Amino acid sequence: MSNIRPTVFVVDDDPAVLKGLSRLLRSAGLTTETFPSSQDFLNHYLPNTPGCLVLDVAMPGLNGLELQKALGAKGSAVPIIFLTGHGDIPMSVQAMKRGAADFLTKPVNDNELLNAIRTAIEKDRVARHARTEVAEIQQRLATLTPREHEVLEHVISGQLNKQVAADLGIVEKTIKVHRARVMEKMQAQSLVDLVRLAEKAGVGKM
Amino acid sequence: MNWVTIVWSMTASACLTLALMHGFIWFRQREAWASLLFALVAVATAAIAGFELAMMRAATPASFGSILKWMHVPAWVVVVALVGFVRLYLRAGRPWLAWTICGVRTLSLLLDFLFAPNLNYREITGLRHIHFLGESVAVAEGVSNHWMLVGQASFLLLLIFVADAMVTVWRRGDRRRALVVGGSVVFFVTVATGEATLVLWEVVRWPVIGSLPFLGIVAAMVYELSRDALRATQLARELQASEARMSLAANASGLRLWEWDIIRDELWATDRTRTHSGPAQFERRGFNQFLQSLHPDDREPISHALAKSMNGDGEFEGEYRLRLPNGAVRWMVSRGRAEFNGDGKPVRIRGVSLDITGRREAEVALRESEARFRTMADTAPVLIWMAGTDKLCTFFNKTWLDFTGRSLEQELGNGWAEGVCRKDFDPCLETYTSAFDARRRFTMEYRLLRHDGEYRWILDTGVPRFATDGTFLGYIGSCVDISDRKQSELEIAQQRNELAHLSRVTMLGELSGSLAHELNQPLTAILSNAQAAQRFLAHDDADLNEVREILKDIVAEDKRGGEIIRRLRLLLKKGEAQQQPLDVNEIVQEVLKLVRSDLVNHGVATQVELAPGLPAVSADRVQVQQVLLNLVMNACDAMSGSPATDHILIVRSRADNGGDVHISIADHGTGIAPDNLEKVFEPFFTTKAQGMGLGLSVCRTIITAHGGKLWATNNPDRGATFHVTLPIATETHS
Q: Same domain, yes or no, for A62 and A155?
């Protein structure tokens, strides 16, 4: 899964700009895919493809910001690098708030753009990786019984077995058995390891 | 009674009757000298017949001789009268011969009374009675007088004289008259003289019967005179007819015939009122009476003219006003000629007069109208000129001459053109000539040199003139000094251009973001391409074909950027408006290119419906672009409040049947309140938070200055439409 080469998607209504950008990216050894409009992109984009999106803000039909919104609604987390003709501050703030990877002004310098793309690809890769790990931990969490889940929550909050037994109203010995079962099911080597896993899966956060 | 008595009495009475008739004719017509001479010949012949009869009845030789003596008196009368008749009537015969005959005959008459008993006899010894025509008549016996030859010589000379006259008349061509008068005189004189000679020399015993041959002469003479009388009657009739014809002609042409008998002071004139038909009727007046009927001012000149003609060459001519009894006044023109008698004294003046009242009135009316025109022309505040059919100027009013400070003589013909500014001359001449040849109305503007040396702008309008029958008469034109107007027009145009420019700059300022973006597109493409190429070339296995493609695209993009800058520069330029034929569709496309980014930013979709093959309009490219740009931007602004899915701009163009090109720009915005449809074009009217409210008012000023119209309507569904019309360019429009 992580072996798939990342792709840079470029969306711009100006065919000359589209052609120039795709050449530049190819010259840097990147795989690119170009779309003349937002709608085109939406129709062809597969969220599983790793990479990033280079997006022109001002376009007829669905503009850059609207496309970002649409992608967000679909749950896509592809990093977006916006290109704009003029640095409109309110627009860039809005874009960044929605999680834009970068906001660059045209004409854009090659290194600036390539750096931004590389950063975005890296971020995507990391994000994708993180998303995979959490899913695994959650699978393990799912195997716990409700009593084991309760024990886990108390343990990671730093309570001793005696305190947990008192809180739950059961004997300390039974707690020890549950704790061992949790450690086994969660494949934790140590208490520290267990806490890290639980944290990643978002357990114990109120 | 017997034959002798009968024949001689009849001869005498016939002669006397004829003599009486012609004597009467002469008495009534003193110029008829021929009639008087004839009467004398006839009376003398009658007397001779009487004497001959008495001689034939003479009782004694003494009475015979006495009768014969007295018979020489009528014989003298016959000879002298005949000579006079030939001279007067035939207008022939040698005068010296005539005088000689008269002299010789008078001599013989004197001798007749010197000798006793008479010229013929020295002595009459006795009377012998012989039978003659069945009667016993007395003839003389005695000694002949040789002096009798003098009398006979006179008859011989008479024969020669008459024969000579006869030849003259014959040669003159009047052969009949030569034969009748000359021939009979020669014949009968020969007979009479011969018989008398034979009797008096007592060669034959026979009475003297000279009256009979003389009767022949009288008959010949009366025959001729009667013919003349007949001819005179004929002539009189012809004259009457000719006069009737003449008076008819005179009447038809309005002529009056008149004649002034100066000696009797009688003025005869055909009365026009009574000569409408039939021969001329004359009315008679005295000269003073006539003079009184003239206008007082004309009496003196007419009298003077008449006096001059009577004392000079006889020709008379004059114009005068005649006062008719009914009080009307007629203008007359008279021409005549005076006739003089032998002493060179004027006898009468004959002439014709013509009523020229109509002509005079027309002349006066014409002169008045001319004077009125001149007064009007000279007092008019405009410069007026007139030209004949040959394009040369024939008139300039005082205002013109005062303006140029030149004389009419200097300006006439083509002289006025000297004052026209060199630069304007050729186009002016072209306009003038072509309009003139086509007989079209024309207007032209040119600079004309004023008297103070300053060139002033003149608006000249010329119209062709035609007579009532459609004949081309030339041109009349008027000019106004429009320098001040021209100056203020120029200033207004300058202000308008400046305002338009200001408005354009403001508008482009608003557009600057979009325009920068528009310029950024090619720049972005160029930079990306160029850096891509650099990277490709850094590789060892650089694909040169790829690099070539890249360079091609760079060039194209650079051009695209340059084009945008060019358009911008054009719009930002501050220059004089220049009218030229433009393709409206092309301008619409250019404007849409400029504003593309703005439309995209506003999320506006453009729908363009341009009619193909539109005629060119005459307009300033930049200003029309400005108007369309303004309207498109307004449309975008109008839609910014409505839902994004409804941002549609529709630009249409079409040809109007009124000779205009119509451009409409429709939006789907909020529309315009009905009260504001017209107000939006007022200066400082605005519904926007920012903006001065000058855009549309400037737009309207621009379009109006182009001769077009700009107005707004609300769409039936939603939004508003702005309409622009521009007049189609015509070839002659400058």
A: no
CA distance B608 to chain A (A): 16
The CATH fold assigned to B488-727 is Heat Shock Protein 90 (3.30.565)
Last residue of a domain, one of A80, A114, A133: A133
Residue B526 is encoded by which pair of tokens?
Answer: 């160029």
* Segment (H or E) for B331: strand B329-340
The token duo for B363 is 């002349």
3-state secondary structure of A170: coil
Mean pLDDT of chain B: 85
pLDDT one-digit tens code per residue, B315-345? 888 888 888 888 888 888 888 888 888 778 8
Give the E-state strand segments of B177-290 in sequence order.
255-261, 266-270, 282-285
Q: CA A19 to CA B529: how far, in whole Å?
A: 8
* Segment B449-463, tens digit of pLDDT: 999 988 888 899 999
Q: Does A27 touch chain B (CB under 8 A)?
A: yes
Residue with more model confidence, B50 or B657: B50
Comparing C-alpha atoms, which of B611, B442, B577 is closest to residue B501?
Answer: B577
Four-point Cα dihedral B278, B280, B282, B288, nearest 10: 130
pLDDT at B130: 87
Q: Which residues contact B494 (CB under 8 A, 6 or more apart)?
A: none
| A23 vs B521, B529, B597: nearest CB | B529
Q: Specify the CATH number of the domain B368-481.
A: 3.30.450.20
Cα(B216)–Cα(B225) distance, integer angstroms: 14
Instruction: Please name which of A58, A34, A59, A106 lies closest in space to residue B526, comparing C-alpha atoms.
Output: A106
Is residue A52 located within the same domain as residue A127? yes
Q: Is B622 helix (H, G, I), strand (E, B) or coil?
A: helix
Contact B372, B416 (CB under 8 A): no
Note the pLDDT tens digit of each residue in B128-144.
Answer: 888 888 888 888 888 88
| B276 burial level (CB within 10 Å; 0-12, 13-18, 19+) | exposed
Query: Distance (Å, rounded) from C-alpha A100 to C-alpha B688?
Result: 33
Q: B3-231 belongs to which CATH class?
A: mainly alpha
Residue A72 in any domain: the answer is yes
Contact between B316 and B349 under an 8 Å Cβ cutoff? The reply is: yes
Residues A82, A175 within the same domain: no
| A14 in B contact zone (CB under 8 Å) | yes
The verdict on residue A2 lying in a domain is no
Q: Which of A133, A155, A185 is the last residue of a domain?
A: A133
Domain extent, residue A182, equals 143-200
Q: Do B535 and A110 touch (CB under 8 A)?
A: yes
How confident is the model at residue B689, as a pLDDT?
A: 61
Give the three-state DSSP class for B420.
strand
- CA angle B14/B15/B17 to nearest 5° reads 65
- Position A63 in a domain: yes
Tell if the CB–CB gap between A20 and B553 is shorter than 8 Å: yes
ipTM of the complex, rounded to two decimals: 0.77
Residues of chain A with Cβ-Cβ distance to B597 below 8 Å are 58, 85
Q: Rounded to a whole number, what is the distance in Å from the CA of A134 to chain B's nearest CA? A: 40
Q: Give me the amino acid identity at A102.
A: D
**What are the structure tokens assigned to B177, written together?**
């008259």
Query: Which residue in B340, B275, B335 sits closest to B312, CA to CA?
Result: B340
Q: Spell out the CATH class of B253-355.
A: alpha beta
CB B157 within 8 A of CB B140: no
Q: b/e for B466-501, b at 16 or more Cβ within 10 A?
A: eeeeeeeebbbbbbebbbeebeeeeeeeeebbebbb
Q: Report the C-alpha gap between A25 and A115 in whole angstroms.
A: 11
Cα(B136)–Cα(B13) distance, integer angstroms: 23
What's the whole-model pTM score? 0.48
Partner residues linked to A173 by β-bridges = none
